[in-house]
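A quick aside before the break. I want you to see a complete sequence-to-structure record at least once, exactly as it would be stored in a machine-readable document. Don't worry about memorizing anything.
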Amino acid sequence: MAGRRHLASLLGGAALLAALLTGGALYGAAPKPCESNEVTASISDGVASGGAGLDRMTIVLAGDAGFNASDAQVDAKGWHKGRQVTPFADMTSGIAKDIDGDLAFVNLETVVTDRNDLKPERKSGGDKDAPFHFRSHPAAVKNLIGLGFNLFSLANNHASDYGAAGIEETLYHLAVANTERPVAFAGIGANFEEAIKPACLDLSGTRIGFDAIGIISGDDQRFRATDKSAGQASYRNRPDFEAVVSKLAALPADYRILSIHYGLEGRVVPDDRQLAEWRDYAAGEKGIDLIVGHHPHVAQGVELDGKSLIFYGLGNFLHPGTTEMSRFGPCRDYGLMAKIYLARIDGVWRVMAIEAIPLTNTQTHPERFVPKEAELRIEALNHLAARLDDPAKGAKGVRFTPQSDGSGLYCAEGAAALGGKIGALCKDWLPAAEPMKPVADKIEKACADKPFYGQPAMTKRRASPRRDFGPSPFPFGGLRPF
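That is the input. The structure line, written in tokens, reads:
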């Protein structure tokens, strides 16, 4: 064990990956690691491969994930609840068939380790009274990879739950998994440069750039990576955010994906910081193609900003130990899975269709709602989308038409004429209609812009002095942790 930790600490994420790849056989030809993920060009003058052999691409998105309750011991056999052990494959069986994209993203809100002797870090700042420490066995991550997940965000407020040793463990196990099947992971590192460095995957000649940044637990600067210490960049630090976005924008790639872990827990409407930094800066100024948000534990609206697509909040995906969400009503009681269908037209990757899939039972066994219940969540998502419309900036909230299988579908103009999977999906599609007034009134009430509501009453956290934007998130007395 000591040798493994020393290797991770010495080499760091990127170098460790290169070392491991020399001794491991890759699983298949697509996707595969890029020949280089060095930043050598800007978004304006960098010419990538063009992806001559690929003109369609599907991306699956899922939100926050972990596989253990706080401070629980890890076990390769699965998740323990009392004497019952649930295999990881059983936990994901309800959504396995939906992980069918060329790329599939998830936020790992957990340390990845097979060690039960790691010491948890005491948290300070805004989270000093929230002693939640999440760790998951690498077998759980390998189960995700086996399903088809290959993009992993590691930057979030639980990345440092077990300190620098936990960071090194996570990097080690993701790199080992990568020797068996190619994956991209980003957001933490043995030092600051590694923590902000983008990853890259090659899909039949199309280069996919990927990077991640998130809030640090309690805004505690012990967990921010430096030139000499492991950790992550801090989303609340504007220079850190600009460094991550600029690195990704400068990576020679055909399509760029940015993961951001930020938001007020329970809030279904993006705050001014999200609009300014995601819409105006990352998408508008830097041209990032896809921005994927998570952390509020509820879904927020989806937006098309020119050719950029923004998911402001995916909500929970799968995490034992988090609260059971049904008490919060149809605007907050589901996680959002999405499928993005892209077509390369005149050399540019364009969003031609999106499927939205509301998920229930995210605390144990994520699965689709029955169609009637799913339709209500799709209507809630559309209600939130209407708040994102900004004609002056070219931003449009995406409305989804409820489908018979419980998904919501959006199709761009001309999608039906493309043929293939996109054409079949959009053949009979009609734009979303307004819901009947009783449904609209129910959604209006459920989607009121406030943190989580209901019993027991919430207690507001004291704001961290380092925050520059808005109030701090809200914990909830008596509820299970987020």
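Two observations worth writing down. The two ends are 30 Å apart (CA to CA). The chain is about 25% helix and 25% strand. We'll return to this after the break.
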